[in-house]
Amino acid sequence: MERQDSSINNYNHSINMLERKTLVITGVKKIDTFDNLHFILDTTMGYMIIRGQDLELVKLDTLSGNVTIKGTIDSLEYLLDKKNKNEDGIFSRLFRS
After folding, report:
1. What is the mean pLDDT of residues 3-11?
2. Residue ranges of E strands in 12-87
3. Does residue 2 surpass a pLDDT of 50?
4. Where are the domains of the chain?
5. Which has more pLDDT, 14 or 84?
6. Of the CATH numbers 2.60.40.2890, 2.60.40.2000, 3.20.20.120, 3.40.50.720, which one belongs to the domain with range 19-81?
7. How many CA atoms, within 13 angstroms, populate the side-chain half-sphere of residue 86?
8. How far is it, in rounded angstroms, from Cα 48 to Cα 12?
9. Looking at residues 60-65, what average pLDDT do you find?
């Protein structure tokens, strides 16, 4: 009998947005940081930043890697992997002019 690996790395990554108000993301390894304007997620496809207004974490399922966010979604963006990023860091990229 083979042992099944329950790691989130094996889950598919998908994004489902409904009317820019609800965002369901699968394949999330962890949430690095969040507030009502930004979410930074580590997904199976790389780091992702979600920008918007009045953002809130509605559901977090750490076993399956699912996250649900509500608010006004303005943008989604994938960032370079943390290990490969330059010295500026994720936060300096967030707040560049």
Report:
1. 54
2. 14-18, 22-26, 28-34, 38-43, 46-61, 66-79
3. no
4. 19-81
5. 14
6. 2.60.40.2000
7. 3
8. 15
9. 90
